[in-house]
Design a protein that fits this description.
The protein has 3 domains: about 100 residues; about 100 residues, no CATH class; about 60 residues. Helix content is about 55%, strand content about 5%.
Length: about 290
Amino acid sequence: MATNFFFQANKILKQHDSSSFATKSERFKTIRLVDKQLVELGFKGLELKGLKLKHIDALLGKWQAEKLSAGTIKNRMAHVRWLAEKIGKKGIVPQSNAGLGIEQRVYVTNENRGKELSQEQLNSIPDQHVKMSLKLQQAFGLRREEAMKIQPAKADRGDRLILDASWCKGGRDRTIPILTEQQRALLQEAKLLAAGRSLIPKERTYKEQVKRYENTCIKIGLDRAHGLRHHYAQQRYLALTGFEAPAVSGERVKSLSETDKAADKAARAVITKELGHGRLQVTAVYLGS
């Protein structure tokens, strides 16, 4: 049976959350978990408006005791912070994770996670919409949701793609340059297939198409296809700097010449924006350091 806390929180989620499907889904799961764990921690009969710093501290203590990764805790706290802001209690969750005592997340492994689609893999995909989504991910560094929700005819602005905020994580639109004849040709294929719509067939829901996408990735050995975004980032880095990214070459940034360090920094700023991230640090996951 749902508690008042969860009922009230879910109402807020439905009224105010304009984020992407993936973000909304994760936010819902986190709030549901928070509700369950607050009850386990002894806070029974809690109303949403009664959320206080002691509840945040109790949750944080539990998660740290469970030895969850810094990344997992930060993601959960981001959703709790969002909820607190919506009920006018912004101050109970510090904006800085350092203020909560959460250790710095380690992003960079310098492991090359870039992946390319082989022709054999593409030939084995019967669903043309899923196939096109994967090809667009590789060519433009799109996220999964973007690669399905994109309306190619609407996004194509000649020399660039404009991704609508409703297709993107965090509800922020972004621009990706169209630089090659291969990208242009692929977009023309995508527009013909979509016929003025998105790359979700009209007879399917987004959730149904996600399931087909996930099953396809498993069958062709592509995991969740995030490696296609890594490949895009690495190819853009090569084009912008003239040399391979550290994750590919194995050469650390600190060993580069001053000229190449400047080129590295400039390229990362461009790629961070194209991938739709807000922090330069995150892009190091794709490029190495």
